[in-house]
Automatic annotation (TrEMBL):
It comes from Paracoccus fontiphilus. The keyword Transport applies. The chain crosses the membrane at residues 22-42, 75-92, 104-125, 131-150, 162-184, 204-225, 246-271, 291-310, 322-339. It is found in: Cell membrane. PANTHER family: FE(3+) DICITRATE TRANSPORT SYSTEM PERMEASE PROTEIN FECC-RELATED (PTHR30472:SF1), FERRIC ENTEROBACTIN TRANSPORT SYSTEM PERMEASE PROTEIN (PTHR30472). This is FecCD family ABC transporter permease. Keywords: Cell membrane, Membrane, Transmembrane, Transmembrane helix, Transport.
Amino acid sequence: MTATANPLPRAHVAPRSNRTRGLWLAAMLALLAVLCALSVAVGTRDVGGDDIVAALQGQVETIAQAAVAARIPRTVLAALAGAALGVAGTIMQGVTRNPLADPGILGVNLGASLAVAVAVAFFGIASALAFIWVAIFGAGATAIFVYAIGSLGRGGPTPLKLALAGVATSVAFVSLVLAVMLSHGEVAGGLQSWQVGGVGGATFARMNHVLPFLAVGFAISLACARKLNSLALGDEMAAGLGERVALARGLASLGAILLCGATTAICGPIAFVGLMVPHLCRLLAGVDHRWLLPLSALVGACLLIASDIAGRLIARPGELDVGIVTAFIGAPVFIWIVRRARVRDL
């Protein structure tokens, strides 16, 4: 994948010292620890320190302890999903050199969602492992389709064409998912709640199936950091430096697709995390992907945990799914990014 525009105007990607980047990493780690503690303690029912300690020791004798026991895997899943989507968004923006690239905007998450909906409704899949493989296949096929559509016409795959192709594909896939649900009422309820995107009801048993895919996705993504730095210089410059451009782009995209597909399989489609996180991280740490990818993982985890906490507090005694909260936050950010980008670059 390629495009002609840089992810951000030059003024916003000034170099950062390694010391500054290390401080930002440490700050995000500290923030993540605080948010994890808040996620465990805050919800429909507030709990005290004694109940948290007891729940961590495996006790569920009181309602408060049971609430903590349910929040712990939920917090872990939010951290993993946020980290995966943050890294995937950074890779997509780096591979396409597109400031609007995001698993949601490019339709990758909804491609995974449609694949799962079709597999559940027409083929009756029920195992967690099958969900993951189907979601990864749908994410990969959609990424290829959107890139092919966005490459048509004069100028090749420009950021605006890719974004428009992704948005159009997303709208079409949403309609297809709704058609599947309407024609298969027996699975509509489960698909509808999953389609919103959330981390409620998480268990460690469910997460065990997705962890190997996330681990491979993170490993591939981090291993491609230097390749992404080369691709940022342009295809010709990267090739002149000895980089195998097609291989680098394919490997990085594979890592992003694994992360998107696995996350969508267990959480449902969660939009805008992969759009917001890379832009914020570039402001903090510059454009070196060796620092940008780890920082994106931490910031993505913080964002999704914070969104989950906000969803619980806003709708007490009920809750808003995290996918709804990120959509409320991400839509204005998307508009801001589009307005700040120069029209000729899009």
